[in-house]
Design brief:
By secondary structure, the protein is α+β, with helices and mostly antiparallel strands. The chain has 4 domains: 1-126, Nucleotidyltransferases  domain 2 (Four Helix Bundle (Hemerythrin (Met), subunit A), Up-down Bundle); 230-406, Orthogonal Bundle (Hypothetical protein af1432), CATH 1.10.3210; 409-538, no CATH class; 555-631, Alpha-Beta Plaits (2-Layer Sandwich). It has 28 helices and 12 strands. The strands form 2 sheets. The chain has an 8-stranded antiparallel sheet, with helices on both faces. The longest helix is centred in the N-terminal third of the chain and has 32 residues, at 94-125. It is globular.
Length: 635
């Protein structure tokens, strides 16, 4: 989404490389001298036009920045798009139009240079002993499969779309990659003006192929993707300015299939492997087309569902398959949204989500799609914290499928206490401590933690007279503090603002003791741990104050529900991402003597979706207007 037009994909370095190779191999001083010998005039013109546009973009970047700058970043894009002559239209902003053209140009340069680099050097790379390999690994005329890669001749004559699709469908499952020679050959496919019934039947068979990722990547690299699947036209080169996705829509969609082909999460892999071949195909098709509605005015979930239904009906999909895939497209980010920004221990939330997915099979499919979608957003975006939230939502939903009475807070509390009583450590505890477990006022502790973890917490808390803490730094950083004396929470969070917090839970225990558990999005270095320990220790000085800058939050970005549950109220903040926001909110709650039960924080570079669960102690709901006025900066 922020391409480097000099050293990155399709950049000027690639253009230089193909010229240098042509100069060495053929002795030419200009690449165009190889026109009609190694490439056509049309191919060269498309490449050269794109390269000239990138030169133009680079000139403007340097002039705007008043220094060398080769990365098209979000900050400079508004002025750059104006310099390039773009203006807002009813359908597209000038920034979107500019990025469309830049992406298209980079793709054209990469396609041309990548094909020719391999074509020019093939004679140099080839060894005489490879002739035996070629004969041995011949699949059919002009097609060779070696170590999962398909090769052909650069002089292989192009086929009609019908013949080409039949060829792809006939390929064995072992073909997972395509050499540049085959990509070039595929790009020459003779495309019809209108698809026939036979074409549509073949496309349907292609979509159900097990190696769908490799096929979609081939069609995309060959630049025939949007012609074969017309509903994807708006996806092509479509930027995503949400501060979350690192890739444009088309590349992101193909990457989702890559992550399905190599699932790293054991729980998701187990779900996927239990699907039969048809079910796996349904998930792959839904995963690939999940963002097909982007680039349109309407909600892309609704648009995507309609577009897919129209295409699938035209391809004569089975109606039951259409229903499953269309529903997955419609609700493709619902599981992620609920897991990261809703109270997944709320009976109301879980009942609504369970009513949407309806059954375990669809829930399993949605989980797999969600994994692929998040994983394709960018490197390390699917983290252990994300995985844990999704799995917890999955488990809570399974309770709803089994028996809705299992969702009530009281029944879950009783079940958890009964589980604790069966533990060996519980039996050995003094009677007084056993009673105190039942008197723990926080319901959330029984909803969120396992029986063994609750008991471990109680055992650690029984001897605390001031405070104790533990820092866990495995896959992600977690700070657990048990205190009897007051904790300066606003100060603590303010000092920790250099880290991104994922969740915060505050459990009331017994004897005025509380447990604070703060989980962050990633792990830290050993040096950071020493710094964090100093911050924790200093946070028990209640006289310490921080000058916390007031974040810019609008009134309509704050949503309060005083009937979230029988004993909890909720407050949601959907605002721009700003440093110190959590510390600022916490400070306000402290001023009003409002008790936070838990906080769930979901953020991108640009936006936050924070959920606060607040104890109904009489201080919050009667002061909501005052609290919102202080938090917000007006309409």
């Amino acid at each position: 989404m922020e391409p480097n037009i000099k050293d990155g994909y399709g950049g000027m370095r690639e253009a230089n490389m193909v010229f240098w190779i042509a100069n060495i191999v053929f002795g030419v001083t200009k690449l165009k001298y190889l026109m009609d010998k190694e490439f056509t005039e049309e191919e060269y013109k498309k490449y050269r036009t794109s390269l000239e546009y990138i030169f133009q973009v680079r000139n403007h970047l340097h002039n705007i920045a008043k220094k060398k700058l080769d990365t098209v970043n979000f900050d400079i894009l508004p002025e750059l798009s104006s310099k390039l002559g773009f203006k807002h239209t009813p359908r597209k902003t000038k920034e979107t139009q500019a990025m469309n053209k830049i992406f298209e140009s980079l793709h054209n340069i990469h396609f041309f240079t990548n094909i020719l680099t391999k074509k020019f050097t093939r004679a140099i790379e080839f060894k005489n002993e490879n002739y035996d390999l070629v004969r041995k690994h011949r699949f059919k005329k002009n097609l060779f499969i070696y170590e999962g890669k398909l090769y052909t001749s650069y002089f292989n004559k192009p086929k009609t779309l019908t013949a080409f699709l039949k060829e792809l469908i006939s390929l064995p499952i072992e073909v997972e990659r395509y050499d540049q020679s085959y990509v070039y050959y595929a790009s020459k496919t003779i495309l019809p003006h209108k698809q026939t019934k036979e074409h549509k039947q073949l496309l349907k068979r292609l979509l159900y192929k097990e190696s769908l990722y490799a096929i979609m990547k081939l069609l995309y690299n060959a630049r025939i993707f949007q012609t074969i699947f017309p509903i994807t036209k708006k996806m092509i080169n479509q930027p995503q300015f949400d501060g979350y996705h690192e890739l444009p829509v088309d590349v992101h969609s193909i990457k989702t299939l890559k992550h399905l082909a190599d699932i790293k999460d054991d729980f998701v892999k187990e779900l996927y492997d239990k699907f039969d071949k048809t079910e796996q195909s349904l998930v792959k098709i839904a995963t690939f087309f999940h963002d097909v509605g982007k680039g349109r005015h309407n909600d892309h979930h609704v648009s995507g569902e309609k577009l897919f239904r129209n295409m699938a009906n035209g391809l004569d999909f089975k109606s039951e398959h259409v229903q499953i895939i269309a529903k997955l497209i419609r609700y493709h980010n619902m599981m992620s949204k609920v897991a990261t920004s809703e109270d997944i221990y709320s009976e109301k939330i879980i009942r609504n989500f369970a009513g949407l997915v309806l059954n375990k099979k669809f829930l399993d499919m949605l989980f797999v799609l969600t994994y692929a979608d998040i994983s394709a957003v960018g490197k390390n975006v699917y983290k252990s914290s994300t995985s844990a939230l999704l799995k917890e939502l999955y488990n809570q939903t399974m309770y709803a499928f089994e028996d809705v009475t299992l969702l009530t807070e009281s029944s879950r509390r009783v079940r958890k206490i009964n589980s604790i009583k069966k533990l060996k450590q519980y039996i050995e505890l003094p009677s007084l401590i056993k009673k105190k477990i039942s008197y723990i006022s926080s319901n959330q502790i029984f909803l969120q933690l396992k029986a063994a973890d609750i008991l471990d917490l109680v055992i650690k808390a029984k001897d605390v007279e001031t405070y104790t803490y533990k820092i866990l730094n495995d896959s992600q950083l977690t700070i657990r503090i048990i205190r009897k004396i007051p904790l300066n929470l606003g100060y603590l969070l303010g000092r920790l603002e250099f880290l991104d917090i994922s969740t915060m839970n505050i459990f009331k225990l017994f004897d005025d003791k509380k447990c604070f558990e703060i989980t962050f999005t990633e792990k830290v270095t050993e040096g950071d741990i020493l710094h964090i320990e100093d911050i924790i220790k200093s946070s028990f000085d209640m006289s310490k104050k921080l000058n916390i800058k007031k974040p810019n939050i609008l009134k309509n970005e704050v949503e309060i529900d005083c009937n979230h549950t029988s004993y909890l109220a909720s407050m949601k903040i959907n605002s721009t991402n700003q440093k110190g926001l959590l510390a600022y909110i916490t400070k306000i709650f402290d001023d009003f003597n409002v008790e936070i039960e838990s906080a769930k924080l979901s953020s991108t570079k640009r936006k936050v979706r924070d959920l606060f669960l607040i104890e109904k102690n009489g201080n919050f709901c009667i002061n909501t207007d005052k609290i919102v006025d202080i938090i917000s900066s007006g309409e």
